[in-house]
Amino acid sequence: MAILDLANPVRFLSLSARILPWIAAAAVVTLAIGFYLAFQAPPDYQQGETVRIMYIHVPFAWLGLFGYSMMAASSIGILVWRHPLADVAHKAAGPVGATFTALCLITGALWGRPMWGTYWVWDARLTSMLVLLLLYLGLMALRAAIDDPNRAGRAAAVLTLVGFINVPIVKFSVDWWNTLHQPASVFRMGGSTIDSSLLWPLLICAIGFTLVFIALHMLGMRTEILRRRVQALEARAAAEAMA
Amino acid sequence: MTHTVFIAASYGVSLLGLGLLALWLVLDYRSQRRTLSELEARGVGRRRANRSGEAE
């Protein structure tokens, strides 16, 4: 419980105020290096120049899944320990994860048109990724629909854990079904099938976007903590005015 | 460069999407901080602190 005790909103505000600018700066530098290498890398022998879309599409996909997994972990914190920071982390991850997932779908469609001849197919990978986006949007709508923040947090946590079944479905959809989407080519048994001249820029871009995700999530958490303080003070002010 | 339009559109929409998200988060943060400062300036939090003997 000692680690949980350390993770309180006041300590989080103090710590995040110090490290957030560094994370944001590291994200900018890492992405600058990543994009430089990505546009210096040779074109793919099949995709040609269109492979440049991979350097943003793949990190968006990973981070869409990462965000949801983080929300699932936060859900356990909400339901088991009723930890306020877990609820804050869960709520703040929603818009960030939804944005990354939506950008994954959009950039995938823009890659699919020249490569597959279509923007969209009801393929298992694409459809499960769309389900992930709908889960994010549904969770945000659920929180907005329930006035009591504690009830909203618990309901969202339960739905998040139920929806977590979609995460392995997204990951293994290309193995379980016959899909138009190519199978895993980076994290797979037997190692990556991507040439190192393309793989390294991809990994550096992925690190850069992960830092962007962390920075945006941290900012969202800081905002949510302040919003809860504002709501508590407004409720107190209203009670004092009535007394 | 082949398929330049699709590559440019992908990077453009990504920049726009992340830019709008960051802008919304920054504006929301500033708005909450401003409201909190106003409430504290009205002494809402201070009265509670004085009653409970806590330092804000």
UniProtKB/TrEMBL annotation, chain B:
Subcellular location per the Swiss-Prot or TrEMBL entry: Cell inner membrane
Membrane topology: Single-pass membrane protein
Annotated transmembrane regions: 6-27
Keyword annotations: Cell inner membrane, Cell membrane, Cytochrome c-type biogenesis, Membrane, Transmembrane, Transmembrane helix, Transport
Database matches in InterPro entries: Haem_export_protD_CcmD (IPR007078)
Family recorded in the similarity comment: Belongs to the CcmD/CycX/HelD family.
NCBIfam families documented for this protein: cytochro_ccmD (TIGR03141)
Described function: Required for the export of heme to the periplasm for the biogenesis of c-type cytochromes.
Protein name per the record: Heme exporter protein D
Gene for this chain: ccmD
